[in-house]
Amino acid sequence: MAPHAESLPVFDQHHITSKMASVKTNSPATANGVPQIEGTSDTTAVVIPDPVLQAKPTQTRFTHNDVLPHRANAKAPMAKGVAPFSTAEMFKTSSALSRPKASKSYYNHLTAEARARQPSSLKGAMKYFKPETISLCGGLPSSEYFPFEELAFEVPTPAAKFSATEGTAVVRSRKYDIADEKSVFDLSVALNYGQSMGPPQLMRFLTEHTEIVHSPPYSNWDICLTQGSTSALDIALRMFCAPGDALITEEYSFSSAVETAIPMGLRLVGIKMDGKGLCAKQLDYVLSNWDQGDCLGTRKYGGAKRPTFMYTVPTGQNPTGATQDLERRKAILEVCEKYNVFILEDEPYYFLQMEAYVSKLNQTNGMNGINGEHIDENAEQDKKKELGDFISSLTPSYLSLSTTGNVLRMDSFSKILAPGSRTGWVTGPADIVERFVRASEVSAQNPSGFSMVALFKLLEEQWGHEGFLQWLMNLRTEYTWRRDGIVDACERYLPKDIVQFEAPMAGMFHWLRVDGSRHPLWQQRAKELYTEAARRKLLEEIEEKVFLKGTEMDVLVARGSWFRAEKSKKEAEEGSTVVNGEIEGSGKEIDATVYFRMTFAAAPMGKITEAVRRFGEALRVEFGLAERQ
Length: 629
What we know:
single chain, 629 residues, alpha+beta, 5-stranded mixed β-sheet, 20 helices, 33% helix, 15% strand, globular
């Protein structure tokens, strides 16, 4: 019998006995992949490969170059009316739609409140709207009475390398651009009520962007616009967490996330971190030992059940600046899938991933931007990179790694365009996003119409996907220069005998570790400390003294304690006894580190350098160190 064209079970092929010929697919007689007929004996079977099984084209990555051909094949025109229903499903590529569904549903992780929400009756009625329909249903104000006839924005362009001095473009949106056939989105639509998932004009762009950058491995994902990630975080926590539940996060976490969760009655579980962010082994240890005696859940977190929800900032983490590499993300994802944990992936700094820092302290050409000048050795190399190289250089997201669908990703325009836009989006399993939409309908509803029309004009009509990606590349270059500048300044001005740091690989933050045991207050009172609670209280006192000394010298940095996830711990831990510099029974030396966060985004480079110099002086004065020579 002739060999099969592919290594497949017998029932996956058509078998026909023939006296005339056989088909050989891997012989020299095969031309351009088309089997050629060759004579053979009357006892040989003819193997005709199943065309469906044989046609296994390699799924190529959707790129910005594929957008226009994809749109040309759209099955339906863009909906242009007021408050039209939309979903990512309308704009996905055939490749995305053909993928298997997420292998698991996490719907049962939702709170009773989230599951009980019903669709908005009025918003839901719009799915019955047709162009010839006369609607007397929704209370939509007439755009005739909107006192805005035109909005105009002057924006940088890719052609001018996004430099305002090199050239800009003016984009305009008028009230009736749709009726005048000048645009598919205008003020009459943007400034009226809309659907909570967002207008189709932006949904299309974000769906395409998601495929270009993340290419989720399952088909049933969806998108919903948000009023920024802070609002999205509040909605997500209410969807997945009830009062008394435990919430996993990094031991030092985004302060607004901590301050959102605590009043909800949530018990934050801070997982230890290293230079690559949240530690997967520590996460596994905490979850595997949760119900073991009084080790964790019973006493430390008030008897809370083992957590099934985790909030993390994987890239350029706030406040530490740590970035989880691919290996770490895979390990964390494996642990979360093992213990049925759903991940809230907060990624405002995702596109600000940088090359490794190279110290310039001893270079003869001087400090990088130490006096505010824009020295940018990597800029030209970055500009020569192709957009595909830029995307492939980004560490894959949890959204792109999870096949089970246990990730809801939060994106935002705040850090990459403007925080005042108050616009972002979430992406995740369709059944979870649908619940998010229901929550949005009775809370934030959707972003401001002014923001949405401005973003549409900028991203869709002016830049396009290619221009947007070029902007992100340019932004990464700019923040890399700033990162290098603040680290250069820290190497030059901070006292190395008490301060340690690693250059961040992404984001906007630089995390300093200060040896509190060198402070006079610690040396005076450390021997009197008999509990872990007393140790922490003394370190916070030292932290405050350093902070206030900095303010006296006109420099403001963020205190590390503001970001500590576990603001207060139960007596079971705080009552630990300190003996001979160790926590009794633990074999661990007391950690006397005090932390501070700096940002290299807020001030001009020259002022950042001066701020670092002032903070260095504050540390020397407060710790009684010799002045810098």
